[in-house]
Amino acid sequence: MQFRSIAISVVAVASMAAAQLTVTTPSAANWWVAKSTNVLQWSCKADNVPQTFTVLIGNQNPAVLVQPMAIIAIQNNYDCSVLITQDQANQAAGTGYEVLLANPINNTDVYARSEAFEIKPLGSLYPTQQAEQVASASAAAASASTTAASSSTKKGNSAAGLGASLVLAAAGVVGGVLAVL
């Protein structure tokens, strides 16, 4: 009898933690665009939320996607949002998609699930808020690459520094410090 009461308490605590974490984007009103960079946001400031989770994409229709597929193995909760590139999630345009935030050790232990959303065809417009976030992140990435290239050129290692900056930009590094010895 005591074991059952402990088990119920553990389930209640786990449910409480899962209820605190919420996927805010994508949603029915904030769709993604196929073969494009898309925004994933969640409620990271809530109490009792897991520190890390795995990000998966699934579809309610098993003919589209048989089971959820991991697109980020371990994501830190404190980031609050992340840009998902076309290399991470390259699903075809369609409806019934959902993003799941799950336990990194057991992906069937889902902490949060997005609303069902649509992935629109390549070339479609983003919702207004998401378009601003993607543009802002792209501008920050371009600025970081330009700053790194400028910094390395001023230090006298222009060929090596510029080459390293281009490699960082090509790898999709959004921010960071490039130190040239």
TrEMBL record:
Residues 1-19 form the signal peptide. The chain crosses the membrane at residues 159-180. The keyword Transmembrane applies. Keywords: Membrane, Signal, Transmembrane, Transmembrane helix. This is Uncharacterized protein.
